[in-house]
Amino acid sequence: MAYFGNNPQRGELQELYADLNDLNFEKKKEAVKKVIAYMTVGKDVSDLFQSVIKCLEFNDIEMKKLIYLYIVNYSRQKPDDAIMVIQNFRKDVRKSENPLVRALAIRTFGCLRVPKLNEYLIEPLKDCIQDDDPYVRKTAVLCVPKVYEVSPEICPPLLELLQKLLEKESNALVLANLIQSMREIEVVSGKQIIILNQKIIQKLLLAVDECIEWGQIFILDYLATYNPQDSKQAEIIIERTLPRLSHINPTVTFCAVKVILKYLDFLDNGDLVKNLCKKVAPSLISLLSWNQPEVQYTILRNISLILQKFPILFENDVKVFFCSFNEPYYIKYEKLDIMVRICDSKNFGQVLNELLIYLNEADPHFVRKTIKSIGKIAITYDKALDKAVSILVEFAKNIQQPTEPVQELLIQMQLIYKKNKQMYKHEESLKIIYSIIDYANEPESKSACAWIVGEFGEFIPKSVEKMKEYIDNFQMEDRLVQLQLLTSAVQLYLKYPSQCAILIQQLITSAKDSFNPDVRDRTYIYWRLLSTDPEIVKNLVCFNSGTFSNFSKDLRLWETQDLVLALENMGNISNLFHKLPHQLYKNIKIKVNNQQEVKIYKGDEKLESQVKEQQDENQQNIQKEQQQQQDIDLLNFDDPPVNNNNNNNNNNNNKSNKTDVFELI
Amino acid sequence: MFSQIFILSPRGDTIINRDFRSDLPKSTPETFFRQAKTYSGDANPLFAVDCIQFAHIKRGGLYIVGTSRFNLQPAMSLELLDRLAKEIKDFCGVINEEVLRKNFILIYEILDESFDFGYPQLMATEQIKPLIVNDPIQPQPDSVMNSLRPKIQTFNIFVPNTIGSQAVQRSVLNKNQANEIFVDIYEKLNVLFNSSAYVINQSIEGCIQMTSFLQGNPPLKLALNEDLQIGRQQGQYSAGVILDDCNFHECVNANELDMNKTLRIQPPDGQFVVMNYRISGDYAAPFRLFPIIEEISSSKIEVTIKLKACFDAKILASYANVRIPIPKQTANAYPELLKNAQQETAEYDSNKKIVEWQIKKLQGGQERSLKIKLTLQATQTAHTARKEIGPIAMNFEIPMFNVSRLQIKYLRIEERGNTTNPHRWVRYITQSSSYVCRI
């Protein structure tokens, strides 16, 4: 504990200075230790630089390690003094018999990060890259990106050397470091540096077997960014990677999954692809059961990404994603999300039955998410609609308080009605939903209620009174609700012109002076239109479900063309946020991707419908894009983002036309 | 990759601070500590401040932190820190503030061998042992380094191709240890019943764990069931033990598993997991729960729960606890045990609204039951309140029993040499992971 005294006072520094210059070796060593201790806690001992480096004359490895630690820390503050050390380094690198000393010197040398020292470094570094000892080579190889970061202009000869080494190196650990450091330079510079050929790939694959686990990660991670030349090569790489699926380190397993999934694209044997999918799926599921919840979370986040490209992967395994009673909520939320994604026409019953049980959970937020998931399933899968609505109606029957799940229920019911207006008849759903309409207390759910009142005015008893109630409180409402109220009130007015005349007057008076330009503009538009030609308003306002059939048909997380890049980054932080790396990190340059077709792996049944849907969408968009865009802008300013997204997706599909639905089976 | 690794004391003082890349401000330890203190409980293992990611684990009250600006694999960063902690523990015996402060130079050495430029290098204790020159100060009696340390001159690790995986099994000389090896088969059960005791979902997460104190780390041969099969085909039923998936430690050679059902192992020192496995198929659940709920009147509910131990009468569960959540609106609850109940307790926790039923020892084939009488507050009727009962969760441990029937047929030491035959201990343990009955 004595090393950690107070601030090094003037006196203490002097004492250290005296000890450092003492003739006794042990005393010197103690003094250096003290200096390092001060340095660790952040006290400035840079004044002792000269005295400390003098101690380098001793050929004692422990002393060397200490002093190098010191030099690395202060070299940038005292670049001029640091030059004095260079000779020592060069001597160590060239003359020392002990590989440990050579590696230590080159490692430290690389860490100096003083541009003007780097030119002295090139020659020794070249020697070390060609050293006989693998330990020195592995250290030297990692020095190159260190130098590159500070002074890239002097590096080209080193890069050549690395490429040469890549061709002849046989030690697995050195290879792993080599790949990793060349890759880092690629990322920093945005240029391609690693040139692969058949032989090198063969060697890398061999190295994966011999390497320590972290090296395996480096190599596999790199292979996942490589595009094989043909199906045969892809097959070989997959074959060599398969054993890694049963590695105990979850990151190794995950990297192996990444490599295999990537190379599936290049195989032309459909049966093989199917078999491989069967091998990958259990490994992914195992990752979920053996690891601590944090790791599980990262895997789950990535599974939702994988599913977009490989819906085939978990076809029969939806049970795996059922939530356990004692899991943390962040895991449960992800599992809910994945269940919605896996849901298809075969297993929707199973999924909905499971979700039904979650509705009894204690946590209101979780119940809310469950309701949202049920709504999503209802909207996405036509066949599931009836059952989903039955579940939601049953839930609505027992509601007695304005809780959080109720808000979500109202929002989801609005979306379901929008998709299929006839659902209001199903099990008297409208009547039951209307009975809980007063429990709405969030802007979104209130606006959903206003929509329901306007849309179903003729089926709801006393709808005009209800609307009057809303309009009386108009000024207090959120902008979202106000906008919806305007549209709904006009809708109701068209249905009951005589009863609503005063109402609409009242609404226009209170809304026309709104501070919010959106609300004000919409008021004026309706006002003018109503006073000129009510028929036009009717066309605009009365919602016709026929024109709206391209309802969030899929749950895409990514644009299809980004999928390849996203999959290459599987497991990384960026995917945890469901973002692309360059969106998250400014220091990552976008790699120019020679765009290839993105294949989607599906089962039979889904495929057909998807093709049809897409054709439908395309046609519709071409015909109606313009008109629809107007309608949507005018009427659904603040529709839930699902719609907007969907529109964007469609547009993109049309423009790029790169999406290819790949027939697998 | 990691830009820095630092270790902070519980008060936020820097004990170790190693900067690999110098691309982050020097004040990151303070930034980290300030942010970590804003969490009410333990800080999230991973968070970001101003585009800097902080991954950390807590050991012995100390924060071991790695920082980065790169697009890392989060699972890997945490794993790396965990390995680092294990290394430090192997060298110093324990991890606490005093030991780390005393050994800070040693720890810098370990850090430098484990990471270079922030990239993980050699991270197994056996591998870096020969590269470290400092001795641990005040070593604890159980420190691995205490007696295993070879002298620096004796290492010959730098022969090409030995840095790789083979180096994990460097021989270790230790004369004080007893020559023995422990093998444990752990199985954790996930079972989900619906209210009529029908199994909705079930799986087993198992592992074979070894703790080796063998002298000279001789290669081992471990034989498993002969009817073992790995990988499940759709719709296939087989009488044997089917593992859906499994994975192995680096030191395990599983090439002969398919043929002879044997694993070849080069055991490192101390504890390690030989193999993890997962089984999703049907198996006989060791306990069955039968809940019955009756509405006595509009304000009274009676819950009866029967628990049946469906395993061999020779086997004894060491404990079995059942937790029954009851409605929030409960005014009072009276759990009643059977009159002849032995070594059983049942308590009602009125704050958490949970009834806990604890059974100390339960023999296979036995049946127990518990009756809970609930009185509700006036605000809720029995009809709506009964929905709030459950789900019932169970915790238990059954020693010397495993559900999967995976067995160790034999464990042989391949090169016996002149040492005496070591002791081999095999245990089977079955525990609950998530054993839930819905109502």
Describe this structure in words.
Chain A: It comes from Paramecium primaurelia. Chain A: It is found in: Endomembrane system. Chain A: Keywords: Membrane, Protein transport, Transport. The complex is a heterodimer of chains A (665) and B (439). By secondary structure, chain A is mainly α. Helices cover 67% and strands 0% of the residues of chain A. The N and C termini of chain A lie far apart (70 Å). The N terminus and C terminus of chain A are likely disordered. Chain B is mainly β and 439 residues long. Chain B has eight helices and 28 strands. In chain B, the strands form seven sheets. Chain B has a nine-stranded mixed β-sheet with strand order 13-16-9-8-28-26-20-23-22, with no helix packed on it. In chain B, strand 17 and strand 18 form a beta hairpin. The two termini of chain B are 49 Å apart.
Task: Summarize the SSE layout with pairings.
The complex is a heterodimer of chains A (665) and B (439).
Chain A: H1 10-20, H2 25-40, H3 49-54, H4 61-74, H5 79-95, H6 99-110, H7 115-129, H8 134-150, H9 156-168, H10 172-189, H11 198-210, H12 213-223, H13 231-241, H14 250-264, H15 270-290, H16 293-309, H17 329-342, H18 348-358, H19 364-380, H20 385-397, H21 404-419, H22 429-435, H23 443-455, H24 463-472, H25 479-495, H26 497-511, H27 517-532, H28 534-541, H29 563-568, H30 573-576, H31 581-584, H32 604-635, H33 641-656
Helix pairs in contact in A: 1-2, 2-4, 4-6, 5-6, 5-7, 6-7, 6-8, 7-8, 7-9, 8-10, 9-10, 10-11, 10-12, 11-12, 12-14, 13-14, 14-15, 15-16, 16-17, 17-19, 18-19, 19-20, 19-21, 20-21, 21-23, 23-25, 24-26, 25-26, 25-27, 25-28, 27-28
Chain B: E1 4-8, E2 14-19, H1 28-37, E3 46-49, E4 52-59, E5 62-68, H2 74-92, H3 97-102, H4 104-114, E6 115-116, E7 119-120, H5 125-128, H6 145-148, E8 180-193, E9 199-212, E10 220-224, E11 228-230, E12 241-243, E13 245-248, E14 252-253, H7 257-260, E15 262-265, E16 270-279, E17 287-297, E18 300-309, E19 316-317, E20 319-325, E21 330-337, E22 344-349, E23 354-359, E24 362-363, E25 367-376, H8 382-385, E26 392-399, E27 408-413, E28 423-437
